[in-house]
C-alpha cells in the first residue's frame, strides 16, 4: 500500500531495527519502546488488521509470535510478556497495517499498564447476540 509506513519499512524505504525476518513476516523494534524490547510483528503482505484477514493468513503471522516472544524474554531477561493487537481506531490502532505488539515486562513500574474493568453483563444474552440468536 502506497502510504503505509509499515509497507515502506518492509520494502526497505524506511529504516528499522529488525530482530526477525522470513518470507512472510518481519519483526522490528517499535520506535516508541514502551518497555525495553517492545517489538512489532507484521505480515509482509498488507492487511488493514486482523478483521480483514483469513484464518490461514492470520495463522501464518501468529505462528511466528511464540518464537519471537521467547527470544525477547530469554535474551532480555524479562519476567513476562504482554501481547497486544489492536483493530480499528476505537481499539487504539494507529497504523492500519496488521501488527502485533510484543511488550516485554520487567516489573510493575516498567512503563506499561494493562488493566481490565469488570462489568455486570448477562453473559448468556451476550452469547446469544454474538451467535445471531
UniProtKB/TrEMBL annotation:
Q: Which residues form the active site?
A: 99
Q: Which residues form the HIT domain?
A: 5-112
Motif Histidine triad motif: positions = 97-101
| Alphabetical list of InterPro entries matching this protein | HINT, Histidine_triad_CS, Histidine_triad_HIT, HIT-like, HIT-like_sf
Q: Name one GO biological process term.
A: nucleotide metabolic process
Q: Which Gene3D superfamilies match?
A: HIT-like
Molecular functions per Gene Ontology: hydrolase activity; methyltransferase activity
Q: Write down the EC number.
A: 2.1.1.-
Q: Which controlled-vocabulary keywords does the entry list?
A: Hydrolase, Methyltransferase, Transferase
> What is this protein called in UniProt?
Diadenosine tetraphosphate (Ap4A) hydrolase and other HIT family hydrolases
Gene name tied to this protein: hit
